[in-house]
Amino acid sequence: MSQSAPSRRREPIRNPWIWIGLLAIVLVGIPWYLPPGTLHPLVFGLPVWTLVAVASSIGVCGFLHWALSKHWNLVEDAEEADTAEASTDGSESWRT
Amino acid sequence: MENLTFGGWTGIGVLLGFAVLMLLIGYFSGRRQPNMRHSMKNYYLAGGNLGVLVLFFTLYATQYSGNTVIGYAPQAYRVGFPWWQSVTFFTVVMAGYLLFAPRLYAVAKKHSFITPTDWVRHRFSSPAVALLATVLMLWGLASYLLEQLIAMGQAISGLTGDTVPYQVGVLVFVFVMLIYSWMGGMRAVALTDVMQGIALLVGIVALLIGGFVLAGGSWSETTQYLVEQRPDAVAVPPLEESVNWFSMILLVGIGIAMYPHAIQRIYSARSERTLKRSLKRMVWMPLITAGAVFCVGLLSTQIFPGLSDDESEQLVGRLTNAVAGINPVFYVVMLLFVGGIVAAIVSTSDSALLSFSSLVSKDLYARYAKREIGEHRQVIIGKGVGVVVVFALLLLAWNPPATLVEIFVLKIELLVQLAPAFVLGLYWRRLASGPVFWGMAAGAVLASTMTLTGVETLYGVHGGLIGLVLNLAICVVGSLLVRQSPSEAKAGESVAEAV
């Protein structure tokens, strides 16, 4: 496997903002900041704190999807180059 | 699961249909890989060549099983709205993968890892650390398998209305699982995961729709009912419960990502791009799976009010019965759904068993045998180990513990102690083997002691997490104090060079 160009390499763990953002979204979804026992208001048939928790979960899903898409590229370029090279000389045909 | 009114011989027919399908998949995937039995990589990792769809479904089957439905819907019934935490902690599992999967994938491909212990041995050059990690993984996997076998028996006897006794049902499906795993190895396991995952997903959605119909079609009515009858299930939970919620997110988020069979799926990906694309799909699955199961549990509070804790354990069986009675379409879908639950439990068990076999054959038998063991022989030994383990666990499964969720927490609390060896080990060159060993051992002992003495949490924080903090502290402070051996320093350097 050939090495990819260092400038294009990205690892999620190296970006602290990913983890700060994730922690913030997760913490908003847990109702620690509201008085225990609060029932109302109900919005769309749900207690408002649950609505916030649901929004937080959707936010975490979207955030992680974005992090996976934009902040992870270690050996992909090298692998793609190797695959293209292999398919050019016909050695790719065994793959399923 | 409660006996189903539509079970009996119809249920047996559905189960046999699923069993035949699994065997056919095993047979054909075995035929497509004639050299599989001679190569550890082919048998245990499908040649490291799984594509996006199959990898996605096999990751899905690793994270969710029939147990997620059978165990979590009653939990939502008992706890109420705060059980939304189950969706959050399944979502955070993907963040757990992000901590280590990108670099571990690259290192694993470069050094042709087969088992998670291969990484530990490569990084720390310490037989003691490798052995301790292997023992913790085997313990966690055995506990996980036991849980699945118990759930399998309950689901089978429920579906067939006890026409098939608990023990006979489990034995039949265990044989089916062993046969298709033997014939096709990891590829057969992953391909059956596709079939089983689709059955589970379709069934959960149908159960949710049926639940809505039975509850009157309005979510507001369920909430209003709970506000009047069980306000604690709707109200903001006490602070300690919120702390417990966050603790559970961290524990499960990191712990599930540390499942040995999950790590082997990282090794099995065809490419980084394939792994990323599979994980991107997985990110949304908690909403569809755990979210739907949460809704099913809450709707059931209105459909079946006043169930005791023990009675609520039978919730999914009761609801399936009721949904099947709505009309013939629901009847057929529910029949396939309960068959799908059994299949999903089998699919989760096979992955854990395959991982268990690989650890014993490669990291114990081949490592400590006095002579050189070839790969073909290791594969055979692994198959034998699978048989012995599964039947030993079956003896335990005949007397199942009452609440499934409690045993689930036990295995996670041990597996999470592997995190420093994987996450810190990948990024911190100075991490030394001695502190890793003592940290892992201390964390595991503390977490186990807390659980065994009934002190599962401290101010809402789980014993597993407290053990992990102790583990991390020993790893970091110890590594700053001790000098690395030349071989450890070289291994740390080589990880950085691998990417």
TrEMBL record, chain A:
The chain crosses the membrane at residues 16-34, 46-68. Keywords: Membrane, Transmembrane, Transmembrane helix. This is DUF3311 domain-containing protein. It comes from Prauserella salsuginis.
TrEMBL record, chain B:
It is found in: Cell membrane. Keywords: Cell membrane, Ion transport, Membrane, Sodium, Sodium transport, Symport, Transmembrane, Transmembrane helix, Transport. InterPro entries: Na/Glc_symporter_sf (IPR038377), Na/solute_symporter (IPR001734), Sodium:Solute_Symporter (IPR050277). It is a multi-pass membrane protein. One of its GO terms (biological process) is sodium ion transport. The keyword Ribosomal protein does not apply. Its main location: membrane. GO terms for cellular component: plasma membrane. The chain crosses the membrane at residues 6-30, 42-63, 83-106, 127-146, 166-185, 197-219, 245-262, 283-304, 324-346, 380-398, 404-428, 435-455, 461-482. It comes from the Bacteria. It catalyses: L-proline(in) + Na(+)(in) = L-proline(out) + Na(+)(out). The keyword Isomerase does not apply. Pfam families: SSF. GO terms for molecular function: symporter activity. Belongs to the sodium:solute symporter (SSF) (TC 2.A.21) family. This is SSS family transporter.
